[in-house]
Amino acid sequence: MAELIELRWRTRTVRLERGAIMGVLNVTPDSFSDGGQFLGLNAAVEQAGAMTAAGAAIIDVGGESTRPGAPVVTEEAELERVLPVIEAINGLRACGELDVLISTDTRKPAVARAALRAGADLVNDVTGLRDPAMREVCAEFGVPAVLMHMRGTPETLKWSQEAQPFTDVVIEVRDELAALAKQAMHAGVPSVILDPGFGFGKSVEQNLELIRRLGEIRALGYPLLLGASRKSTLGRITGVTASEQRDPASIAAHLYGLMTGADILRVHDVAGHAQAVKVWQRLGESK
Fold first, then answer.
1. Is the backbone of residue 278 left (phi > 0), alpha (psi -120 to 50) or beta?
2. What is the pLDDT of residues 100-149, one digit of tens each?
3. Which residue numbers are catalytic?
4. 5-283 is a CATH 3.40.50.150 domain
5. For the CA atoms of 250, 253, 256, 261, what is the dihedral angle to 10 degrees?
6. DSSP-H helix ranges across the chain
7. 193 close to 147: Cβ distance less than 8 angstroms
8. Pairing of strands 4-8, 192-195
């Protein structure tokens, strides 16, 4: 039987198999890989349906790019992008056409609040709920949150060797995530998922070391999300410059991550990852 992980809301618990897939749905014009592809409501909802059919357990809807150097999007613009999509996906769930969790990928408390009211189930915050108002929103609605590790902001970071200084990247990321998790739980957030922030202010070698030693972060006892999908580190290793052509590299990184401690994979290519995870799960079954 596949190993299960628990996500806890105030009023319910959802159990997902290890290797669960979070599908990336960027309704932005400038995300690093798929910016502009799903700006229209119909295109976004169709993609959500396709990812769910392919095996996504969670759809992560984002209206602001967090690629390095990306401009800050106004609260109004982000709401205009994401709310119709979340409402439409939630409507399809209500009539039984989709069975999937909805995540809102935002760092703005007002956007998180509106998204949860519109039907989102959890919050994915690249700033790790450092803003007390974000913790308050998640506690008020009784929803889980993904806490990502990042030093600096997307406006100042670069996915390059000009990384933030670390003495031991794994130990420092682990300790900073542990502090964020404690802070969130103390504020009343019912459960958290940790994300080591692959690519955010880390060099190629630091990113690889994080994947090799994910178990040290997983030992904190929280579910662990890995989001290496199509990142520039993979391009530097493979020489593939077009991000949309890095899905094979993404699958390799994510499967290794599952072996070292990841529970949930945040990906662009849901179908390819779903196939790979099924084989990985079957290989792990005892005879």
1. alpha
2. 999 999 999 999 999 999 999 999 999 999 999 999 999 999 999 999 99
3. 231, 266
4. no
5. -100
6. 41-54, 75-94, 109-118, 132-141, 169-186, 204-212, 214-218, 232-238, 247-260, 270-283
7. yes
8. unpaired
